[in-house]
Amino acid sequence: MATQISTRSAGCYGTAGPTVFVICPNMNKNLSGLQSLPIGGTGVIAAVRGPQNAVRRINELGLTKGTAVTIVRKAPFGGPIEVSIDGTHLAVRLAEDLSIDVLANGR
């Protein structure tokens, strides 16, 4: 089971529909894309945006809002990113229309 944190106390809100997202107005200064975290960097998923079927598949893999992730390694030239979620390693290739936003923990 992935580590979950509550974003409700931070004033976050979201919506479901063709595009699923969550907005955390008080924490957006630390918000960045998953691919922008450095190797070894950690963060918490704040939003998964994109087509509904892609968002659903990413969520099925365990990359859900509130999940803590660590970047293990990155392939060059925009290739897959290997992430660790509670000791489970996943390789994720982000399509052009899919975005995973994270709140960086500053490592």
Salient structural properties:
107 residues, mainly beta, SH3 type barrels, 8% helix, 37% strand
Give a brief description.
Helices cover 8% and strands 37% of the residues. With 107 residues, the protein is mainly beta. It has a six-stranded antiparallel sheet with strand order 3-8-4-5-6-7. Strands 1-2 form a two-stranded antiparallel sheet.
Describe the structure.
This protein is mainly beta and 107 residues long. It has a single domain (8-104), classed as SH3 type barrels (Roll), CATH 2.30.30.90. The chain is built from one helix and eight strands; from the N terminus they run ββββαββββ. The strands form two sheets. It has a six-stranded antiparallel sheet with strand order 3-8-4-5-6-7. The chain has a two-stranded antiparallel ribbon with strand order 1-2.
